Amino acid sequence: MFRRRRFRRMRPVRRRPPAPEPVRNAMRLFEQGEFGEAADAFDNLAQDAEEKGRLVQAAHLTAQAARCYLQLDDVDAANERGMKALDLFKQAERPGAARRLGERMAKALKDRGRQAEAEALERELKELPAPSRPGMRRGELPGKCSQCGGPVKESEATWVGPSSAECPYCGSVVKAE
Length: 177
Fold this sequence. Notes:
By secondary structure, the protein is mainly α. The chain has helices at residues 21-31, 35-51, 55-71, 75-91, 95-111, 115-126, and strands spanning 158-161, 164-166, 173-175. It folds into two domains: 21-128, Tetratricopeptide repeat domain (Serine Threonine Protein Phosphatase 5, Tetratricopeptide repeat), CATH 1.25.40; 137-177, no CATH class.
């Protein structure tokens, strides 16, 4: 007559810890236009990530440092960081990310009158293997990570499921909308 309700055990929700404070601070400095301090912060974070073997994260952080130096019109430092980021992407076997970064770097070099360096970079990019075809994805990623504020681009993200990707800066999972 009376049935006992069966309760299902619910799995605990696994939440990633918030992004490390140094990553959030570096992103905040960049957004506030403090490019010198942001560049130093990104360089330190990239070095730490590389020492821990997180090559993709180190590459993204190094590329962000290069963007800071471009904002400061220090093209030599930006080019040096950009080349380091390219090498890190190659070591991490991410030729697609290396190619996209290299194309942006070549454009920035051309815009600043460094035609010879841009052409040398373009020749180097032609030697990279063609990127593999991406799988099916649903939704669109937000422009920024909700944890650290870093830019999240669909073409550069590591997809961990059909509708979620990993933030390249802090490693938190970003859901597609």
